[in-house]
Amino acid sequence: SLAPIECDALVVGAGPVGLFQVFQLGLLEISCHVVDARPSAGGQCSQLYGDKPIYDIPGTPVTTGTGLVESLLRQVEPFAPHFHFGQQVSTLERQDDGRLLLGTSRGQSFLARTVYIAAGVGAFLPRHIALPGLPDFEGTRLFYHPESLERFAGQTVVVQGGDDEALAAALALVDRAAQVTLVHRRDVFQADETLQAQVRAAIRAGQIKLVIGQPSAFDAHRMQLETPEGASLHLELDAWLAYPGISPRLGPIADWGLQLARKQVPVDTERFQTCEPGVFAVGDVNTYPGKKKLIVCGFHEATLAAWAGAAIVFPDKAIPLQYTTTSTRLHELLGVD
Ligand code: FAD
Question: What protein family is recorded (predicted)?
Answer without folding.
Answer: Belongs to the ferredoxin--NADP reductase type 2 family.
